[in-house]
Amino acid sequence: MKTKIRKENLNKKDIYYQRKNGWSVIDEKEKVKVENFSKDYMEFMSVSKTEREFHDNSIKFLEEKGFRKLSDYNNIKAGDRVYVSNYGKTLFAFIIGKKDLKEGMHIVGAHIDSPRIDIKQNPLYENSEIAYLDTHYYGGIKKYQWLTIPLAIHGVIVKKNGEKVNVNIGESESDPVFCITDLLPHLAQSQMKKSLSEAVEGENLDLIIGSVPSKDRDAKEKVKHNILNILKQKYSITEEDFLSAELEVVPALKPREVGLDRSLILAYGHDDKVCGYTALKAFSDINNIPEYTSCLILADKEEIGSYGATGMGSNSFENACSEIVNLYYGDYNEINLKRTLKNSWMLSADVNAVFDPLFPSVSEKKNTAFINYGICVTKYTGARGKSGASDANAEFVAEIRRIFDSNKVIWQTGELGKVDEGGGGTIAHYLARYGMQVIDCGVGLMSMHAPMELASKLDIYMAYKAYFYFYMDKRK
Questions:
Q1: What is the pTM of this model?
Q2: Structural domains counted in the chain
Q3: Residue 445 lies in a domain
Q4: Measured between alpha carbons, how far is 58 from 334 in angstroms, rounded to an integer?
Q5: What angle is formed at CA 81 by the lines to CA 271 and CA 33, rounded to 5 degrees?
Q6: How far apart are CA 14 and CA 179, in angstroms?
Q7: pLDDT in tens, 271-283
Q8: For 413-459, what is each residue's pLDDT tens digit?
Q9: Structural domain range at position 214
């Protein structure tokens, strides 16, 4: 006797994974939140173009929310809000939670440096009665994209006596700007036969800084002499002071809304300040004492491998956590530190690429992110055979699904290009080495690493929402 098998009518929603454009999902009330959040973000970004500026503005932001320097504390307890600055470029902040510190923290870590052009230590020279500043580009840029656009100079000059001169030229409407020249098409036949990577040499990314000669008859390089006089009069610095300066060249352009529907934001430094800002805002919006200690990382030097004292490759974060452990328990015990770090959860808040319809061949559509589809979760990074990857385990991915879905966060998954096409890394592996659970999770961009990058307002807001509910989660 044959048994008849009854076919069940399954709802497609139960068996298919479907991604949706976020604008078709959110209601009018949330659309207002998206717009208001985007406005605040654009204002913050317009004055936070470098890691130093982002760091300083973040401290002001946190102090207004009741955070104090760690050095102000003799002990810390649940509810205390503290921050640690690392050389004015990296920032660690903590909200002590209800749970014992050894049970772990909820960490969101972003980097606040962006691809740019740095000015060399001995930069000023004259050529054919034009004064230039010699430069060295920072991070992975397409050099040709930086030609002929208005540029600004930001940074600090530190004199031998320790006096620090802040520099910001090119942002005010009354300021001059600077530029790097390019060949006219009529004379560029040889240049245009070269590959994009070879057409513009790094040593030719020099900045025009002036062209008026000095009236000093004894000056051999009269234009350079005139520039030095201007620097002396305006900033009281000499040519030698460039030796101890950190000057960065960035686009002299403000963030702008894109599209007739104003749904996108074009700005310098979305990578990775967009995750830095959304994490900062989510962190500072924690009004009650969280279950687990919340931690914010705003790091430097990610674009060049996280090296140096302000990069996540240093021991700076571990040192900050050691100070927290010491003040929390009354003395330092290494096993307490190790347990705190191992039991922590972390979102490595870094951007990913979204599908660009004009360049479809570099992406595998099933596993790439799309603009307006929410924050992008990236299980693993690395290149080709996952080289250099931090690969989150399935159990932690399931926890992230639970947190986001239960709080109506619009999210998606995505890889950085086809398997053999590209790839990249983040700060994730520097935290994963402590044995904590880590996954990459950030905003998807178009034109990443260009002088002006493109991001979705909706995706930016969903990043904020994702980070906030991650901080507030009580775990199962």
A1: 0.95
A2: 2
A3: yes
A4: 30
A5: 50
A6: 56
A7: 999 999 999 999 9
A8: 999 888 888 778 899 999 999 999 999 999 999 999 999 999 999 99
A9: 116-251
